[in-house]
Input
Amino acid sequence: MTSLIIVSVLAVAVLYLGLFKYKTALLPVSVTGLLAAAAMAAMDWDLEKMYFSEMMLFDNYAVAFSILLILTTLLIFGLSRNYFEKISNNVAEYYALMLFALAGGVVMVSFHNLAMLFIGIEILSISLYVLAGIRRKDPASNEASLKYFLMGAFATGFLLFGTALIYGATGSFNLAAIASSGAFESALFRAGVLLMMVGLSFKVSVAPFHTWTPDVYEGSPGLIAMFMATVVKTAGFAAFLRLFLMAFAEASAFWAITVAILCILTLFAGNITAVFQDRFKRLLAWSSVSHAGYLLLAILAVGFSASSAVLVYTIAYSLASVAAFGIMILVSRARGNDHLDSFNGLARTNPFLAFTLTLAVCSLAGIPLTAGFFGKFYVFKVALAQGYTWLVVLAVINAMIGIYYYFKVIIAMYMKENANAVAIQLNPGFRLVLSIVVFLIFLFGIFPGLIANIL
Amino acid sequence: MSHFLIVGAALFSIGLYTVFSRKNAILVLIGIEFMLNAAILNLVAFGRYDRIDNEGQVFAIFAIVLAAATVAVALAIIINVYKQYKTIDPDKIKDMKY
Output
């Protein structure tokens, strides 16, 4: 709880720093504040405290995901030095909006009442509508913002209507009261669950509600796309799982088949379209759609250590995405665009970047010795324990398709030559963050027990 | 009670139809508002059967506030888009290729 207060106050403080033109202080203040927030969140471990008359519950699930969100934001801030200054003069707004979005994310992982779920999603989304369009002079950024807004607000309508129907069927917004209401057979309740599922699917880009994803990722500034792919996706799935775990778990016989169909659609839509992409940012966007499919597998298996599987998967995915998007930003800045050909010869000019990107895409593809392998392993394991063998077979086929398109960029870096490529200069922030990410991907890839037994 | 539900469902459907059929971002926004207000109407109507007083009404107020915040951001985005493209038809705003 203290961490949520710190993040919110920090965002306002950063706005004031911007108002009084202390631009150099923005990054240090944000980083210190986030470290403090992460530490305060860690102190809530095992306390299981309810806040605001059972509006929020800080159990271990909430604490683990809050810390993950805060630390991922910290990594993104580490890359942001001199990045936002190139886009506009009002740098404070970026930090403030990202911190507000983070506050929304923390609410989303710790809600114990449908009202807080709705409010958390809205805080996160409204900040992101602005962030997506923050390059005001760039048509692509405006287009991304408009599309994201129209889709997001449309999804909000579904979410709110679903909430209203569930309230009508059960007479409460409280998750525990909904779970014990026994109204699972009523048509009102079932319609509500489906509508909420549609709303949440939009937010986490599950097919067939994923159409905004590639355009929004491509049009938004690189760091914002990174934020969407890591923090927003993690928060969205943590909220999705928390809702279905704590409120709808008893009714799983009814919604499981729908989630299974969404999962298959998402996996195939994401992976098959990604094969045909020749720009790296769009490829990452489609791959993020496919990762939503793998995460849905874990939601199917509510109860069987699904939260642990989702935690491992999102940690691995966030780390790899930070590295992949970070290097994409560097390459597209140095060579003009993010076409796969721009990566030609990177192994010769920048061996460290090429190695990091190789590791990141291996982790995204799920190659052993990287964190991503264990992410997929645990997700498949919980799905198998629930008897979804056919679904896991389809998911493994998709993972193999994934290896094909992820390796296109490795081939470009190591096998193809680019005669006039020059070495890309790294600033210390990038070097530090990428080193941390490489270390953690290896660490969790070799000792998965460090994160697998947290929840 | 069922009257409220019928009106709510009708509003939601009108909003849904508006979102899909209109060629103007402002009208799409109005459609979205219809959907949100349908939900808010339902919340208030269901509030009658709640064990706790006014829970549905309080949620409705939160939803109204957040919808207002969304509209403020949305209008700013639409103005910006209009400056860039000189149109606010979402179907015409597609520079990015699939």
About this structure: Residues 26 and 184 of chain A are 50 Å apart (CA to CA). Chain A touches chain B through 39 residues (CB under 8 Å). The first strand of chain A starts at residue 49 and ends at 51.
